[in-house]
Amino acid sequence: MIYVNDDFFSHEFFERSNEAFRSHPELGSCAGKRFAVCTEDPAYLLAVCLYLKANGGSFYPIFAPTPRLAAKRLATRAQCHVLLFEQGQPAMSLQREGDDDLAVLVQTSSGTTGEPKVITRSWSSIDEEVESYVAKFKKPNKMTPLIACPITHSYGLIAGVFVALKRGQSPVIINNINPKFLLKKLMTTPDHLLYSSPALIHSVVQLYPKGQQLNAVMTSGTVLPKAWFEALREKAKHVFQQYGCSEAGCIAINSDTKAANHIGTPLGHLKVNAGIDTSRPGEIVVQKGDDIIFTKDLGYFDEQGQLIFVSRADDMINVSGLNVYPQDVENVVLEIAEISEAVVFKRSDPLSGERVCLQFVASDALEPSRIRKWCSTRLASYQLPVDIEQCTVIEKMANGKINRNVLSQSKISIPAIG
């Protein structure tokens, strides 16, 4: 049914797990109850998830490395009744009155632009998304999903595991994120489809043997920098991209990605509105039945009906009334040979309202003046980075995204222009 690294877990494993859960003091009466699970064991996590889904319970997966007290705070905040840790360990009962009227999948938003929100989606909504996903995206029907991202997030759990099971496939969940192990799995799985974060995909592309090609790669979460995307296109036979948000799930899929910001066409069960063109992007708004979801992302549809991503609305930098989109600046900075990673964000400025800030990783020490000079021949003056900081690593969250809001609040360690 599924693999975890090299270990296979059959239907019989899940049937035995269900039998054990039915006599479990907490899981045995799961209907209407909300369970948080924090475990290093993906097979156990998925067994609990499928059991709750089938028996009227609600499920909240918590990222495995989360400390116990932090997991308790998250589970309490998400109004869970019970917190489960590793299989065989005692459950933790939480203070929660009343039961859920509807069985749901509980998630939290990424928190890239503020305090993470608790989001609930009914299991029927998840089933509808999976049905629509499989109906639209048929190219991978005979590919083997290698899921090298946390299944505590909807990208790995829904688009990765649930979609694979719907197709009758046996997904490979990889929680041994050792580059050598991942490369070995990719090279020994002929028709693989890698689900992963942009940063890990970029590492794989750099390490993959010369003369060999990746079969298929799915990227999500954030748009790849232009240089990373072009390297991926060169190395992979198929480059897929999907776009979504926690409230709606997957919104659009691109089954033949030609440009990094081409995030696909919408799934059939959704109605999506966006801007008019590149000069007039608008917020991407999703309608599902009577529900309207405002994504806080800016984009537009091109003449072929392709949804083009421009920026997070909160990430856009307003310099004296002129809009600066971080990826435009990042792509230029990443053309400098020594620079391997770059993130552009904003800080308040007493004169211009906001100013462009840059943090980057490079193989050698680079003077800010060199970067500004490079950018000045390729960008408008209002787009030029003012605060520039070189670092050894750009901090990312568990889902591979960068929290620009946190960067905006940090203090620059290298003086600005002066």
Structural account:
The structure is a single chain. This protein has 418 residues and is α/β, with parallel strands linked by helices. Helix content is 27%, strand content 30%. The strands form 5 sheets. Strands 2-1-10-9-11-12-13-14-15-19-18-17-16 form a 13-stranded mixed beta sheet, sandwiched between helices. The protein has a 4-stranded mixed beta sheet with strand order 4-3-5-6, with helices on both faces. A 3-stranded mixed beta sheet has the order 22-23-24. The longest helix has 14 residues, at 123-136.
What number is the mean pLDDT?
92
How does the major sheet shape up? 13 strands, mixed
For the record, give the distance between the C-alpha atoms at the N and C termini, rounded to a whole number.
Answer: 61 Å
Quickly count the helices.
Answer: 11
Shape: globular
Indicate the structural class: alpha/beta
Number of strands: 24
Low-pLDDT regions: 414-418
Strand content: 25-35%
What descriptive keywords fit this protein?
418 residues; alpha/beta; 13-stranded mixed sheet; four-stranded mixed sheet; 27% helix; 30% strand; disordered C terminus
Tell me the layout of helices and strands.
Layout: E1 2-4, E2 7-9, H1 11-22, E3 34-37, H2 42-54, E4 58-61, H3 68-77, E5 82-84, E6 92-93, E7 104-108, E8 118-122, H4 123-136, E9 144-148, H5 154-166, E10 172-173, H6 179-187, E11 192-196, H7 198-207, E12 214-219, H8 226-235, E13 236-245, E14 249-254, E15 262-266, E16 271-273, E17 282-288, E18 291-301, E19 307-312, E20 317-319, E21 322-324, H9 326-333, E22 339-349, E23 353-362, H10 368-376, E24 387-390, H11 404-409
